[in-house]
Design goal:
Elements lengths: L3 H17 L8 E5 L5 H6 L6 E6 L2 H8 L6 E5 L13 E7 L8 H11 E12 L1 H11 L11 H10 L2 E9 L2 E8 L1
Length: about 180
């Protein structure tokens, strides 16, 4: 997760694609789920957010993120399935750079994101299709939880049925990138 190649992909592929999907507005209150070492926060800082909260389950990653000393940024050790650190309707934007497939309780995460987004708030997500991750797991033993290996079609159905409207989506090379709105 902290490897230069991962950051290269996030900087040159994922973030630009999410921007093309609409992640461009400045001055927003942003929540990043699974912020890791804070590299996504560095990219999101280009949007000059009013406020930024990054959460991750791993204290050592949060320590790395805090060392970045970003303005208007707060990094918290939190379980994404319980976002009690955020008030109802307090965030304009939530961003997920491909971490939901690591979370068995990803449906609860979506419920919490819906709760903390303002009416009309935006969710930007990049995720791989679970079929491909599962195939790679059999060979490389990466240890992804089976409950997190959702198919993108099922993911879209779940989002649509749980308070989100898909505005734009891109599927490429086994990945889905989404711009969604809280309805």
């Amino acid at each position: 997760m902290n490897r230069p190649f991962r950051q290269f992909l996030q900087r040159t592929v994922e973030f630009p694609l999410l921007q093309r999907l609409g992640l461009r507005e400045e001055g927003q209150d942003i929540l990043e789920v699974g912020c890791g070492s804070g590299y996504g926060a560095v990219l999101l800082a280009r949007l000059h957010p009013h406020g930024y909260v990054g959460i991750d389950l791993m204290p050592e990653q949060i320590a790395l993120a805090q060392n970045r000393k970003l303005t208007n940024a707060e990094f918290l050790v939190r379980d994404a399935a319980d976002l009690h650190c955020c008030w109802d309707g307090s965030k304009d934007v939530v961003v997920i750079f491909g971490v939901l497939h690591h979370i068995p309780a990803w449906r609860e995460v979506i419920t919490e994101i819906h709760r903390v987004l303002k009416p009309g708030g935006k969710l930007f997500v990049e995720e791989p299709d679970g079929r491909y991750v599962g195939t790679f797991d059999r060979f490389f033993h990466w240890g992804h939880p089976p409950a997190g290996l959702f198919r993108l079609k099922d993911f879209e159905t779940y989002l649509s049925g749980h308070g989100f409207k898909i505005h734009r989506r891109v599927r490429t090379l086994g990945f889905g990138l989404y711009a969604l709105e809280k309805v």
